[in-house]
Amino acid sequence: MMAAATASQRGRGVTLIDHSERLAEKIRISGGGRCNFTNTQTTAERYLSRNPHFCKSALAQYSAQDFLDLVNRYQIPWHEKKLGQLFCDESAQDIIDMLKAECDLVGTEWRMGTAIATIHKTESGFRVDTAQESWQCESLIIATGGLSIPPIGATGFGYEVAKQFGLPITPLAAALVPLTFEPKDLFNELAGVSLDCDAWGGEGPHFRENVLFTHRGVSGPAILQISSYWQPGREIALDLLPGRDAHALFEDAKRSDALLPNVLSDWLPKRFAQAFCEAIVPIKPIKQYTPRELASVAERLHDWRVVPSGSQGYKKAEVTRGGVDTDALSSKTLMARKVPGLFFVGEVVDVTGWLGGYNFQWAWSSGWVAGQNA
């Protein structure tokens, strides 16, 4: 919609073809129904890509402030949560209605519930065929998203178009997704427990946010963030007492008759403290542990290494990591270097944002840039 609105407002005749019957389902369900539509801290460093510099041009051409200005122009009430995240006060539908209105300002044609059968390159551009009709066009923008959340219509269509025209695809994986553990693992006894952690996915930055234990493994913002960096078979590391010194805490409590889990429950959820201790040491009063044993427990508390068995996959992933290789696209226009008139924007491209509105901002920025150049 951003690409269509931008191109049509430049005077281009635009038809938006969508195989879904309902418009913008991913916007509708985002942010608990209130759409985390951008982030005030948007920078290229908040994105993953084989080429980490690729997104800079689009983000500079159409910034988070530019989108916020559009939201304000439509008088959509919004609020800021932690870490620069901006949400609608009322409903994600406000963002959908705004983008549709922008498309309709100069007559974008809509074809909802219309599946594309074939795309062909022609001398003057492209021919797009559906079961109902065909279009001839000079420019074609692929804004089809990735594989995440197939129940609302996600498919690999965009990747197939890229392959058809010889554009490489980087490896794809579910990202911003809960991680799973085998049924015998400690995590599965802790469903519903949440705690503040510093999490690391084996590479990339650390994220300090909540970790939520589920019946299948771990979720919560910190886990979703590190899942974008995690690779199957690798460890993740959790600091269970970020900003504290477990060694000093044990020093203060070492003469206590209290059992170790009870001491830890002053700092951690009681159910977690009990399960954690049972997994790593014999349970006894804290004063009975040797200094070496307490030092080992403290080390584990600050650097607990575990190996997930996998993730919950595209069904629960917020985005797809990987996509159309950025080497095949112009960072200034989003057009395929070897296929004039063919553009790729949003999630289908190998640009994946952090949790917190960054992926929507990439959609707005890349869509606007393609719309300006198509």
UniProtKB/TrEMBL annotation:
<dbReference type="InterPro" id="IPR023166">
    <property type="entry name" value="BaiN-like_dom_sf"/>
</dbReference>
<dbReference type="InterPro" id="IPR036188">
    <property type="entry name" value="FAD/NAD-bd_sf"/>
</dbReference>
<feature type="domain" description="RsdA/BaiN/AoA(So)-like Rossmann fold-like">
    <location>
        <begin position="1"/>
        <end position="373"/>
    </location>
</feature>
<keyword id="KW-0274">FAD</keyword>
<dbReference type="Pfam" id="PF03486">
    <property type="entry name" value="HI0933_like"/>
</dbReference>
<protein>
    <recommendedName>
        <fullName>Flavoprotein, HI0933 family</fullName>
    </recommendedName>
</protein>
<dbReference type="InterPro" id="IPR057661">
    <property type="entry name" value="RsdA/BaiN/AoA(So)_Rossmann"/>
</dbReference>
<dbReference type="Pfam" id="PF22780">
    <property type="entry name" value="HI0933_like_1st"/>
</dbReference>
<dbReference type="InterPro" id="IPR055178">
    <property type="entry name" value="RsdA/BaiN/AoA(So)-like_dom"/>
</dbReference>
<keyword id="KW-0285">Flavoprotein</keyword>
<dbReference type="InterPro" id="IPR004792">
    <property type="entry name" value="BaiN-like"/>
</dbReference>
<feature type="domain" description="RsdA/BaiN/AoA(So)-like insert">
    <location>
        <begin position="174"/>
        <end position="319"/>
    </location>
</feature>
